[in-house]
Amino acid sequence: MSFWEYLAGRRAQLLADGWQHASAVFQCMVVATVLGVVIGVLTYRSEWAGNLAVTTTATLLTIPSLALLGLLIPLTGLGVAPTVTALVLYGLLPIVRNAVVGLRGVDPSLVDAAKGIGMSRAAQLVRVELPLAWPPILTGIRVATQMLMGIAAVAAYASGPGLGNEIFRGVSSLGSANALNQVLAGTLGIIVLALLFDAAYVLIGRLTVPRGIRG
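The chain above was modelled as a monomer; its predicted structure follows.
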């Protein structure tokens, strides 16, 4: 069976796996973005706290994905729970690091001007600092999403959803007629999803980042 014949015959299953893969990455990125920005906001004013946040999330990223899933399975069981936990943890580093860098890079004179016109600390953060720090934060989100697209495939080891199941089925049946087709279909599906997500982020950047800041 040719690769195109395999795609035609398995179209419904591949679309379902692709949707689950995209949905898992998207939902985990929402959680990771909220957590990462909150951590950045809480730590960027302190040199040691910001460095600790970045170092901690960087350490999490050094744990091999199979090892992390293996550690999580006894605690959370198989399926969605270990997948979501692992993806959120892996997605934190680029967001936390860029949030800290972006917030620290805001011109202090702009913050002083906001303070001078009577803005509260919360208003300064929401209306001045976070909008100016948004471009690097968005870059961190883009990087984290691309990483999670690939890492999510490994979640099939823990019976997680997504295109990784197609890849694992192919790897476990190497030598069979459709093994290569399964691996190729899963891999190409992840690449397509990664490109679509990145295109969406480019559009979001054009809509939310003022032209002057984009340069």
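Residues 163 and 186 are 5 Å apart (CA to CA).
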